[in-house]
Write a structure and sequence with these properties.
With 961 residues, this protein is of the alpha+beta class.
Length: 961
Amino acid sequence: MLPRSDPGPRRAAGLFGLLTVLAAVAFPLAPVEQPEAVYSWTAADGDAAIPLLPYQPVQLTARTSCTTAREAPPGQVLLSTVPPRPDVVGEPLRGLLLTASGGAVRVESAGVDLGTAELPGGDCTLSVVSDPERTSVLVDDEPALVRDGDVRPDVAGAFSDVRAGVELRLSTDTRFETTISPLKAVIGAVGVLALLGMLVALRRVGRARRVRLLPRHWWRPRPVDGAVAALLVGWWAIGPITVDDGYISGIVRSTGSNGFVGNAYRWLNAPEAPFSWFYDLYYPWSLVSSSTLWMRLPSTLLGLLCWWLVSRLTLPRLGRFAGRRWVPWFAALAFATWWVPFGLGLRPEPWVAVGALGVFLAVERTLATARLLPLAVALVLAGATTAVTPGGLLAFTPFLAAARPLLTLLRTRRELRPLPLLAVLAAAAVSAVFLMVPDQSLAGMLEAVRVRAVIGGGQPWFEETIRYSRLLDTSFQGAIGRRAAVLGTLLAAAGVLWSLRRTAAGIATGPARRLVIGFLLGTAALTLSPTKWTQHFADLAGQGTAVLVLGAVVASAPLRARPRAFVAGLGATTVVAAIVLAGYNLWPYQGAWFTPTFSTIAPRIMDIPLATIALVAGAAVVLPLLARWTWQRAVGDPESPLPRRIPAPAPVFAAVLVVVLAVEVLIVVRVAAAHRDSYTLTSDTIATLRGHPCGLQERLSVETDPAAGVLPVADGSPAGTLPVDVGGHTVPGVPVAGRTTTPWFTLDPQQRTQALPVVVTTSGPLRPSDGLYLEFGDARQVLERRRITPDLPAQDDIRELAPTGATAVRLAVDAPDTTRALATLPRAPRLTPMTDLLPPGTSALLDWPVAFLFPCLTPEPLPVGTAALPRWRVGPPADNTETHITYQPQYGGPFVAPRLLITERRMPTYLAGDPLRDAGQLYRWLPIGPLARPEPVVTWPTVAGWHQNGHPRVPGIDPVG
């Protein structure tokens, strides 16, 4: 046992730990400052937009004079909090409705008929008072109708058929928009300072074994470091985006206008707490620039840090094998295998990967030095990693993997008595509370958790198999790079655990076993994450890299003298390699643009899948070896060493990893070079470096007036045209019925050079039997005839490039007479650069799949319990329907109420270098009529951390009443 240390630091550590725990308990309960926004409206103001979020007010009072109600014709609307005639495409809300009823007033709220209140003679006032406990209808402050329970109405605005005698007053629900109070800030500061004091005191507690933290010459760069850095920097510039980069970008960039980190796309904009502190770091980062290049730099820096932790600390801890010349290079390959498909972007996984690896190293440092300080640091890191995302819980798995030696260490160290020791360990673990609710109240955080649970969006733990089925499907979820990283590392983990008892191969058995067990426990911990995407495997990138290296080391051990082990390893490698090579090289969204055909199928040589080649080649080696071994066992002959010409499992799988990495990177390079005149992440990077950081917007042009581009008639004039509405503009068209042919139209010079397409817009449903054709020619004869069919049933732009030599085009129709579809006459789009139409700084509603690619547009705010009324909406390609969550109440969409107040008009967009591609959609939001925008009276009272006033109600999910 090591000598006991000075009692002063021991006492200080225990007291500081206890103070940290007390501060962590008090911190969520501490008061916060919550805005109170009150809106007032009278009928004289005219119809008004007050789109609430959440949709119900905390308290509402509506009043109408009895004189006004008696004089109104029966059925006339005295007050409605949702528009009586909203856009039919919008999702309905259920508001407050007061209608005159011949000397009485009928009252409905939240879809509940509260009854009819009779009006006495003479002057009086009818009031409706609604809060979470009850809704009352009062006549001169005397109850006429009372309904207990929560029947508060949804509010999108205030609408009335009268212009006097009606008023409305309401306060919005701002429980999520809190800011830290001075008292809460003091408690947090005390807790953090106490934590630091505890760590300083622990440094002086007890004596420790002297163990070198860093290897000699750790600071010297090596060629392998340069190779890894070059790959990370190159991938930062050209790598595809992840599926959630737009989602996270929208959340981060909305933080400033909203005042907190809320989910700007669903869940009633509930805060991301308790898993959101990395958003708070991204927000000030985004204030420097929101360009894709700048916003992806943190993940690249985290990649460099992760590589440093792996190469400088993790591998030396795992054994002497780290000194072999080939190990750093294989480690670089293993790291690239994990980081290229998973690590770039705004998602939280790079933070978790670094944090989890840091926890493993701190635990190993604890065991190596027999000190408590590294253990406390490990607990602090694990808590901070968990506060990033629910998947961060896997950061605690190193403690489980090292439970036995840690408990032995704690029993042998007597510097701290049990209670101070417990205080120290608890303080380190609960310190994450200061990151989880920095400006939220406990009630607000719990309400956010409740809203997410009620609305849903995830899967329970027992559906974890979905993650692995997605890993093996043919979408980007099961892309070849993801398969290589996950399946290869699982194979390596099995090989390491099987081999450690038989051959050490220069491996430190204890740390290696703890690493592998921690990795496997981490994969199990992913079952606790609420969603089941394969992207979450990236949480294991740091540990996974080290496990892959360990697998290569044990597979490179002299196994030829043990045929059974050799055959088993080679057979398993063959199967995993075949499954990996059966994956497609796919990426989400814009990452899938321009991909060549061989990227949309499994890799192949001479039309033979590489997976088949690998499986057959492996079987050709493994099956004879298996037969040879079986024969020797049957006849009693001793096992003889295998021939040296047979490839070992390690180099075989290394070759597979090289092939996969080359497929991933080189195809992106090929696309970047072949389509440098259009939009790729590479062209985005180059444009940003040249001072044009507006992303995809720089490459898009908008057809602001489709009617302006109708082609001139070559001979004669079109007869029998009908008006077709295209985004609010009237364009001449023809019915898709009967047998007709339009006159020839002269192609625009840019259409003859294929710089612009010929465009026809269809309106109404086209059936398979409806024949609609574009005929290209020279105004005398047809050179080429193409049948055109829209992708969407209601309205779509048909875009076709004219064939070489064509100078004219016409429409031909061969359809049943009963068809109701229309088609516009051919046109050449007259285009305006999108940066001219929406200059940088323009506010727009950015749908989450594309929000990352429009950094110069400002996301629409969600201020003080309301939503903005946007003028513009930027959406993904028309075939992407994932944006519905933002506009549907059952998902808690923040812009449900504004959607009821506008009519949406589509404006076609065209991508430079590829005008046929649907790269994105631009919509103009036009108010349904003149709408006043009342200004709220906002105050900032201080409320307790447990304060709440009812629950926001999710229409269609939460019960009414």
